[in-house]
Amino acid sequence: MIVNARDGSITIVECKLAKNPEVRRKIIGQIIDYAASLRTLTFDEFHKRWRDRGGPNLENIMVGESPLSLAVSDNLQSSRFTLLLAVDEINESLKQMTVYFNEKTDSTTRGALIELARHSAHGVEVVIPQTFGYEANKPDLDPYAARKAWSQEDFAAWLLKNEPGSLPKFEELMKTLATIECTWGGTKAANPSGVIQFRSGKNWRYPFSLHTFDNATIEVAFADMRKFDFMDEWLEIFAGVAEVNQTLIRSKDFGAYPKIPLKRLSDPIVMKAIIDACEMAKLRV
Prior knowledge:
Blueprint: E1 2-4, E2 10-16, H1 22-38, H2 43-52, E3 62-63, E4 66-67, H3 68-78, E5 81-87, H4 92-104, E6 109-121, E7 124-132, H5 152-162, H6 167-178, E8 183-186, E9 194-200, E10 203-212, E11 216-220, H7 222-225, H8 231-236, H9 246-251, E12 259-261, H10 268-284
């Protein structure tokens, strides 16, 4: 079972009977296997499975100024999960395993237990939950849940300090995109980052993301957009952009995220390609 919280956090739940001796030997490996499979999914793949099982549309739920889907997508990419074991009894061996797991993993991963004890009185059955593991101190100086999403101004400030030559073209790009209702959406990554987003009906789409590591980049989200029927035309828009290898992207069935250095916006071909790609996506999605 998967639980999505209002802050975009993802919890993977596995239910077992604590009295079963297999719990101690297999449960941690089993739930880690689930997490390993989940981290390979794009947001669209995850969202389809979520919706197919009756989950609400995460793109329709707003958290502050951004859709919940943006936070969920960020957590998927970062493999930021809580692994929750739901049992009928929290015994000492399960506690020891949870403490060890939390001590040996970083802040992106937490193990926890929830006991669902059943009680009956006067013909009424009650389930009383108790938890263990959420109180564990994780080694994180900047907890993800406490971070604010990076604003466009934060990203611009990083450019001004670290890559000032890219700032005027970035501002020009965002100003032009605003005229076609493509806007900035901030993420909670460790470094200033965000997406170019637009609304399509009740859903949000993210054709590009922007990152800052050693240098600023703009990432083309072919893998997130490939379910649409205009990908060949979309790829052709980037014909003059060296960083977008058309042969390689087609060989991966568009499952790629090529990165373009932001400083390349000074090339009119690159600037036009990004604007045209946003405009086509907005018109065709």
